Amino acid sequence: MKFYDIKIFYAKKKTLFLPANIHMTHLMTQNKIAPVQPSERHVILDVLRGIALLGICLANYQEFSLYSFQAREIVEAMPTAKIDLIWKYIHYIFIEGKFYSLFSLLFGIGFSIILSNTAQKNQYGLSFFYRRMFVLIIIGLLHLYLLWAGDILVLYALVGLLLPLFKNTPNRRLLVISAALIFFPIALDAFKVLTDHRFSLMIPVEKALHYFNVKNGINDDNFSVWLLEGKTYSDVLKFNLSGSFIRCQEFIADNRAFKVLGLFLLGWYIGRNRLYARLDEHTAVLKKIRNYGFLVGLPLSCLFAWNAVNGYPTGLIASSTIYALSVLPMSFAGISAVCLWYVNGNLKRQDKKIFKIIAAPGRMALTNYIGQSAIGMIIFYGIGCKLALSVGLVYVELIAAGVFMFQLLCGNLWLRFFRFGPLEWIWRMFTYGKWLKISK
Fold first, then answer.
1. N or C: which end of the chain has fewer CB within 10 A?
2. How far apart are CA 260 and CA 252, in angstroms?
């Protein structure tokens, strides 16, 4: 298997990340804007972010452990091979693609909150939004090169720059465009097959990847173990440079930008109509989405899991169709189930405490997302504890769950004394262009 085969080296529909605290409000003064206060936040959005962070960690740590890079014979020789195979099916049924879909929706909701709050004064809205996206691009590029080439922040910020184009689009048209964009990749994959892949945007990316691989000595033989055998941080940087081009290949092959923009627009529709703030008025609809979503999504997700585990024998067009028709219903069903739990649980004191605990890491989503990368590098890479390839997939996922629990604990403790997570604080200061108080 060649090292540039993107179907192996980076997880195909990873999550990735959205602005965790993208809400904003204006101060009493007519010409100033400032971050949203904790009392003005909608807890359900932070709860969903917190849950999504767990899914992100479970998905991404398969990459940090280098498990996803290994040939089938190596994976099958591991002591935990049988239970690892079971977990693979669980992963594709319940995790793959579902959490990136959730985060994309939340990003669109956050965008709608920015514009609705700033539009009240008819100033700062778009310039503020573009400034926020530009800072996110910088953060994403630093994350991609310094920590992990599987970054999603850069793509989200670049696609997010297109959202103002749909600011005044009517609701019905917005939903039609959203659905068209989400399913457009199926048509693109069909076009690729019918034209025998003659029209490819990957050629310049492949040339750049080949150049840096040759320059840094990365090849077929050492790619899958490079991060484990690398003894210095410079080895990590060399790998991440090549990995960034592999990430570009993946986005092109998956037609990811269309899916992300479609989900952004759906999130924008939800946010513009403030559906997240009136969940109790829509419990009947939420129940239908939950029930029909699981009814359709669960069997198709089982088919998707079988297809993925066995190397996509159904071919590109069928695989793309199965993915879209399984991931989205399951994701929407899961979101609806959490929202219904939140609506019902708000009446119970014990559930309110659970929501508050889960929401804490969601309020620090940027810090936790990048923190997961830093912790993964320390645990698995050769410059850290060197656990990569020494444990099977099931233990990798237990480690991932442990990392999330650590973040859950630290997040709740941190927010007792501080208003934002550390990276959220930095992001805000660069966006607002002024010093912001972080302590409560």
1. C
2. 13
Distance of alpha carbon 382 from alpha carbon 347, whole angstroms? 49
Rounded CA separation 42/48 (Å):
11
The range of the structural domain enclosing residue 214 comes to: 17-276+351-432
Confidence tier at 112 by pLDDT (50, 70, 90)? confident
List 34's β-bridge partners, or say none.
25
27: left (phi over 0), alpha (psi -120 to 50) or beta: beta
What is the spatial distance between Cα 15 and Cα 53, in angstroms, rounded to a whole number?
9
Q: pTM to 2 decimals?
A: 0.89
- Condensed to tens digits (0 to 9), the pLDDT of residues 380-409 reads 999 999 999 999 999 999 999 999 999 999
Q: How many folded domains does the chain comprise? A: 1
pLDDT (tens digit per residue) in 178-228? 999 999 999 999 999 999 888 878 889 999 999 999 999 999 999 999 999
Which long-range contacts (C-beta less than 8 Å, at least 24 apart) are formed by 383-386? 383/230, 383/231, 383/232, 383/233, 383/235, 383/236, 386/228
**Per-position DSSP letters for 41-80, written without gaps between them:** S-HHHHHHHHHHHHHHHHHHHHHHTTGGGS-HHHHHTSTT
Q: How confident is the model at residue 36 (pLDDT cuts 50, 70, 90)?
A: low
CB 4 within 8 A of CB 205: no
Yes or no: say if 396 and 419 are a contact pair by the CB < 8 Å rule: no
- Helix segments in 273-315, DSSP class H: 283-309
Residue 260 lies in a domain: yes
Q: Is 336 inside any structural domain?
A: no
Tell which wins on pLDDT, 241 or 15: 241
Other Cβ atoms less than 10 A from the Cβ of 31: the count is 9
Q: Which of 159, 140, 157, 158 is nearest to 244 (CA)?
A: 140
Is residue 370 assigned to a domain? yes
Residue 143 token pair:
């994350």
Alpha carbon 316 to chain centroid, angstroms: 23
